[in-house]
Amino acid sequence: MKKNLHKKKNYRIYSLMETKNKTINKSEYLRVNRYSFFISIFWFTFIIASLLLNTYMLNLKIVEIAKSDARAHFNKDLAIRMWSAKHGGVYVPISEHTPSNPNLSHIKFRDIEKPDGTKLTLMNPAYIIRQIQEDFEKLYHIKGIITSLKPLNKDNKPDKWEEDALKKFEKGTKEVFELSDIKGKAHLRLIRPMITIESCLKCHKFQGYKVGDIRGGIGVSIPMANLILNSKKQKNLIYFIHFLTLLLGIIGILFTTKRIKKGMKDKKHLEAISKVHYKALKQEREMFITGSVVIFKWRNQENWPVEYVSANVKNMLGYSDDEFVDGSLIYSKLIHKDDIDRVFSEVTQGMESDDNHFFHEPYRLKGKNNKFIWIDDHTSIIRDNENNITHFLGYVIDITNIKTLEASLKTSEQKYKTVADFTNDWEYWENTDFTLNYVSPACKKITGYSPEEFINKPKLLLDIIVDEDKNIWKVHCKNEEKTHDPIQYRIKTKDNDIVWIEHVCQKAYSENKTYLGYRASNRDITERILYENEKIEMEKKIQHSQKLESLGILAGGIAHDFNNLLTAILGNADLAKKKLSPVSPSMKNIERVIETAHRAADLSNQMLAYSGKGRFVLEDISLSEIVEEMTHLLEVSISKKAIIKYEFAYNIPPIEGDATQIRQIIMNLITNASEAIGDRSGYISINTGVMDCDDNYISQCRITKDVKAGRFSYIEVADSGLGMSKTTIDKLFDPFFTTKFTGRGLGMSAVLGIIRGHNGTIKVYSEEKKGTTIKVLFPALDRTLDEINKANYKKQPDIENIEGTVLIADDEESVLSVASEMVEAFGLKVVTAKDGREALEIYRKNIKTIDLIILDLTMPRLDGEQAFRELRLINPDIPIIMSSGYNEQTVTQKFSGKRMTGFIQKPYRLDVLFNEIKKVLVKVQG
């Protein structure tokens, strides 16, 4: 009987499967057929487009081959013509094939007679080429022509196409071709111009031709039959390949469509089996869903979505089965946050094992009343035919009562489990009589004292706190209301190390609310405190850097305007000095004005250096050579009681920089070192070398912005002077800061600006009464000085014999006036403009007479950069010299790739302006 029931059950399953297979949705098949049809149309269109494109490209290729062949014949005829023209033609015996050329009757010696009586006639280039073309056509069927709009020989008269081509040549066309039929056969005709040269005038001068005129053209007709035949073979191959590709694509589409339909049928078949088995499983497990055991079926997806849950889940958690199945509830979200990682790990281990079931350690689920219950979960794994895990099937039991009982049994052990022995924090339990009931082992790692030492001597808790922080502890202990708030204090360990502690505590009570004492936790936060202190120091450095940057911007702006004033002063002084007699009483006053203006310019350059925009004359230099050249100057600049020592590294890589600015840095550092030694005996050492700096080293330097790790050449200056305090070091680079009774100038702030402008950095180390060491580092180049000097060698241009008109544009009236007078002193004409817009208007009116333009960078209405761009649109070749109070490096970056002709920085002297103008005009005028 049992066997018959089993057969009836299988019969019902297979009957249901068959029914499901017959009711497969036909619309899905229709959709697949539709997609296959559209893909086939796309494939057919793509192949046809490819075929047309390849055929078109092949036709173009044939024409290009014919044109290339025609050009080769043209070059052959042109070479023969040039050779014969260069030799004035060729005399040949008169014959029936080569009679005297009637078109050369104007030539005096057209016909001559040799001593032996042989009569010769002159063959001009056209005559020679025509005979060669006729013979070439007979041999190779390639017809050549020579024609002209004014032919001497009527046989050379052009046809309509040739006439049109010759007219196009006179307008600049270099070549004309066409495809045409000649005697019923396809040909490519190509013609190119024939230019009149000196030797052509012997025969054609009387026609009015001059050297360089278009005298006519030489043409070639190339037969296309062989090329067309070859192209047909290639086209047949292209047709075959495209047809084969089209056929294979259609077959692939049909095969894929068939496979997709079969996969759909198999999928429906499997779904029918799954549903039948699921229904049977549900019936067979019906007895479980009415009791305390809840059955779950989860999908193997993120958060384990529930696909089925027995209805008695409502009795356990308060939620209905529909709330789980429709996705309103996410199972993983109900698991207690302290258990979720462990549960996930257990699922992962179960999936990786070979078993089809696994057990969970009890975990907590949150019910609808927001209370957690403890459950016991037994899970089985469901796999598909390919052994992939698709579902988890399990039953869960509420074991909250059991867990509550276990907790009550462990109450007696609560005092030992209050603080876990394995924690890294130092935990302890203080009784109501201030004795210690428990101390965690971590105390030894933090304090150096063992738990037994604390238990035997409770006062040790207070004794190890540093004296300055004991009051913090006492106030905390007296605060009955907020004893749980954390406090921070320092302790002295058994090894006399200082450790920062974060302490938190709270009162402990029994189940009947009996006060049991305090539970406390202490954490070592030394590293965090150190990090916070480092962070504060870093913020101070950033604020200091921002302050210096703001002052740098201000200094740069002042220096720019100051340079405009100095340009007028120096320019007028130079002009006055040029006009005065060398013995004039006023000459000394003029020279004092010039000297004073130069000192003012030096101050301006220091301000620009501080702002990082100093005037750098960049070159590749060796730090060792610069210091060595300055040894005598340095030795006479320091205190008589100071000894200076040198240690040069001669193989260090060069740097790119301004030698004058580098010397200023060295002099400043040496002077400061000498003043630090004062009247006492001491030493100053100067070292040069090369080193590799990583990001950690650069972070310890004064300048870190835009400085990248790498190789640096350096100058190091050390002294045995008084040294500096930390406060002094922090202010060392502030403008006008000095430790002397009186001081002036930008001092070390200018040094900082120069270093910043060279993309370098500086490191300062000093202790009071122990001296100071300052190391200045510059990015090292990856080449030697010998290579650099060889690459930089250039022949000096000849700058004599110049003349022309110069347009000067500047919004400063004083600069405009003195610059005009200076340029006129060179013997040049001057036109002036007060801004960029006026400069454009003047240049448009005088474009043929103005040879050079000097533009100020900063002007109203239209600044120098905008005016430069507009002038280049009017005349791309006009020489333009930019002028500015900022340095050349800054201005060059603005005009990178815009063909700036030259640059002159304000304030400029008469000779500097003169040399720059001469250099530009000589280059332009050749």
Description:
The chain has 926 residues and is an alpha+beta fold. The chain is 47% helix and 21% strand. The chain has 30 helices and 30 strands. Strands 8, 9, 10, 11, 12 and 13 form a six-stranded antiparallel beta sheet that branches. Strands 15-14-18-17-16 form a five-stranded antiparallel beta sheet, with helices on both faces. Helix 2 crosses helix 3 (125-140) and helix 2 (26-86) runs antiparallel to helix 6. The longest helix has 61 residues, at 26-86. The protein starts with a helix and ends with a helix. 25% of the residues are buried. The model is unreliable at 1-14, 741-745 and 792-800 (pLDDT under 50).
Helix content: 40-55%
Number of helices: 30
Poorly predicted regions are 1-14, 741-745, 792-800
Average pLDDT metric: 80
Strand content: 15-25%
Which descriptor suits the 3D outline?
Answer: flat
Which class of secondary structure composition applies to the elements?
alpha+beta
Annotation, overall tally of beta strands: 30
The largest sheet, given as strand count, sense and whether it forms a barrel, is: 6 strands, antiparallel
Q: Nearest-angstrom radius of gyration? A: 50 Å
Q: End-to-end span in angstroms?
A: 120 Å
In short:
By secondary structure, the chain is α+β, with helices and mostly antiparallel strands.
Task: Give the SSE map.
Elements: H1 2-22, H2 26-86, E1 90-93, E2 111-113, E3 119-123, H3 125-140, E4 143-147, H4 160-170, E5 176-182, E6 185-195, H5 201-204, E7 214-223, H6 225-284, E8 294-299, E9 306-309, H7 313-317, H8 321-325, H9 331-334, H10 340-352, E10 357-359, E11 363-366, E12 372-383, E13 389-398, H11 400-409, H12 414-417, E14 426-430, E15 436-439, H13 442-447, H14 451-456, H15 460-463, H16 470-478, E16 487-492, E17 498-509, E18 515-524, H17 526-579, H18 587-610, E19 618-621, H19 623-629, H20 631-637, E20 642-647, E21 655-658, H21 659-677, E22 682-693, H22 695-699, E23 710-719, H23 726-731, H24 748-757, E24 761-766, E25 772-779, H25 785-792, E26 805-809, H26 813-825, E27 829-833, H27 836-845, E28 852-856, H28 864-874, E29 880-884, H29 888-894, E30 902-905, H30 910-925
Parallel strand pairs: 20-22, 26-27, 26-28, 28-29, 29-30
Antiparallel strand pairs: 1-3, 2-3, 4-7, 5-6, 6-7, 8-9, 8-13, 10-12, 11-12, 12-13, 14-15, 14-18, 16-17, 17-18, 19-21, 22-23, 23-25, 24-25
Helix pairs in contact: 1-6, 2-3, 2-6, 17-18, 17-26, 18-24, 21-24, 27-28
